[in-house]
Known about the structure:
The protein has 264 residues and is mainly alpha-helical. Helices cover 61% and strands 6% of the residues.
Amino acid sequence: MTGMQDPAGQPAKTRYHLLDEIRGFAVVCMVFYHGFYTLASLFHSAAGSALLAFFTPAEPYFAGLFILISGIASQLTHSNLIRGLKLLGVSLAFTLVTWALGFVGMNVVIWFGILHMLAVCMLLAAAVNRPLRKLKYPVVGILICLVLFLATMHIREGWLGFPFLRWELPAAVMECKWLFPLGVITPGFYSADYFPLFPWMFVFFAGASIGLWAVRGKFPAFMAKSRVRPLAFVGRHALLIYILHQPVLYGLFSLVQWIIQAVS
């Protein structure tokens, strides 16, 4: 993940390996979590269900870490528009494939998962990065995003704001089945992976605000040093690993199940 600027204002060749390593750690956590989910939901494993229940409370934190790093990266890329369009294509393919799997009895459809959300955020970043880079104090953007995250985190429950100052969403809004990308869900809605824009887009743009320090050359030098190369490798190839890990896990678990049945 490159950053900093040369005198001409172009991205320098410095790579912030620490960001790759943090993203790699988040990806590894997600792979393990999805492995437990697969064991529990598709293979009906008691051990998988226990592990899934144990790790589920941690899932928003490592997913949020992944989203935050993606937001930082939006300041270091050459084109959020191209990246966003490519990721949108991948995420729509995910929806199509997981929807089709329903015809063979696998209820794993993903209507708006983390890739869909990141794709939309990248496209939004392409539109707002120019004015965002004029922000003198990045901490202001971070604080605004924190407030907006807290104010929208209860949208699934039908309200916005804070416990002491809340706005109940109108029934017509809560009954609209097409607002699930925003976090409004109707009874019976299901998505095996679900990360709506509210509140998660504000984690992404908090990261984009942090990334302003990178493009201004204010990230500390220690972030450019590689310390855990396997994690850095995973972080650099996060999308490919995310695409491939579920079919690989399913195939591995199926093989283990076949071997156990064959020898028993």
